Structures are given as C-alpha cells and as structure tokens.
Amino acid sequence: MNMQKTIYDISLLGGHPALDFVNTVDSRGERWGPDFLNSYDDLVVWACRLDVMNDEERDTLLVKAGKSASDAEKELEQAKALREVLYRLFLSEFDESPVSQEDLDFVADMARHAQSQQSLGRVAGNIAWRPADAKDLNAIRNRVAQSAAELLTSRDGRRPVRACQGPNCGWLFLDQSRGGHRRWCSDKTCGSHARVRKFRAAQAD
C-alpha cells in the first residue's frame, strides 16, 4: 500500500463496507499501520465514501463533533475498537481461528442499536428497512456493526472472506474471483509486488 494515501483516496477493495472499514489500517502484515482514521472527521469521510451516510447526515455529525471534541475523540476510539473486533472475526473465517463470544457480543450490541432505530418505508420503489437519520456521533459505528453482522451471518450464501497474502498488507476482501482462489487485495499492487519478488528470487538462484 502507498503510505502517502489518506482516508480521502485509499483504495476500496474489500467488496463490502465492513471489510473496507477493517482496511482503514494500511498494513496488517509484517508491519502494522499507518492508521487512516486519525480524527472523527476521517471517520465521517470514510462513511460518505462508502455511502454509509448521506451528505446531510455528514453535515449534522460534523457540527456535533465540532461542538464536543472530547466526545468525538471517544467515539473515534469506539469505532476503532469495533474495527479491530471485526478484523478478528472476519480473519477467523479465513484462517479458521477460534471466534470469541465476547467479540460477537460487542458487534451484536452495536448492531441492535442500529436495528432498533430502523423503520419500514419505500426505497427505490420497494418496501425496505430504512435507517433513522444519523443524529448521534455513534451512528457510523452502529451502522457498520449492523452491516458487518449481516455479512457474518450470511456466510453460507456468499463468497468467502480472504486475507491478502502480501507481506505488508493483510487486507480483507470478499473473493469474487471465478475460481475462488484470489490471493491479493489487488493484482496491480500486492500481486505485482509478489511476482517481482518471485522473479528476483529466481534470478538470485
């Protein structure tokens, strides 16, 4: 990954908002970081890029965060805690490591809060659940938790979650490849780097 990138232009390669949320850390491989979520504003920017909220909600939350920097900082830390829990849960699907009930409960509590504020309405000509307008600073993480819970519980009916095999990556993604054996978050970045390393190793032998 390019360490010059910011939350405004990091790649969105996860195939699902919950996985792209986990991927707001540049590397989870041989090194960790840097972290792209350095302020509550960064969290809002990310949410708008992934259509987790609309522009009106964005403005509401930014005003609220501006009025209470300490509350916004606390909420950012809670969002990051959710991110690390989701990383462990989705990684367990890939490496078959044990799942923590404490982690599941952590996600469930936030997801239930988002679900309790939904209402039925017409969306694009259909009847569907609609989230309540985002008015509280915790709206983003609650929505992410709800989305993640839906992804976690749909494993039997979707493509698997994989972890990029790049040594300085570890990003998570839904494997939508035809054969179901995708190894890289992006063939143009981590995949290309892997081929270069393999070529250099062969030349050195």
The Rg value, from CA coordinates, equals 18 Å
Largest sheet: 2 strands, antiparallel
Mean pLDDT: 91
Strand content: 5-15%
Order of helices and strands: HHHHHEEHEEH
Write down how many β-strands occur, each being a DSSP E stretch of 2 or more residues.
4
Instruction: Determine the fraction of residues in helical runs and give it as a percent range.
Output: 40-55%
Strand order of the largest sheet: 1-2
Tell me, briefly, the overall form: globular
Number of helices: 7
C-alpha termini separation: 28 Å
Query: From the helix content, strand content and strand pairing, which structural class follows?
Result: mainly alpha
Q: Which runs of at least 5 residues are low in confidence (pLDDT < 50)? A: none
Describe the structure.
The longest helix has 27 residues, at 69-95. The protein has helices spanning 17-22, 40-49, 55-67, 69-95, 101-116, 139-152, 187-204; strands at 119-123, 126-130, 161-163, 172-174. The two termini are 28 Å apart. It is globular and about 45 Å long. 51% of the residues lie in helices and 8% in strands.
Short description:
By secondary structure, the chain is mainly α. It has helices spanning 17-22, 40-49, 55-67, 69-95, 101-116, 139-152, 187-204; strands at residues 119-123, 126-130, 161-163, 172-174. Helix 2 (40-49) runs antiparallel to helix 3 and helix 3 (55-67) crosses helix 4.
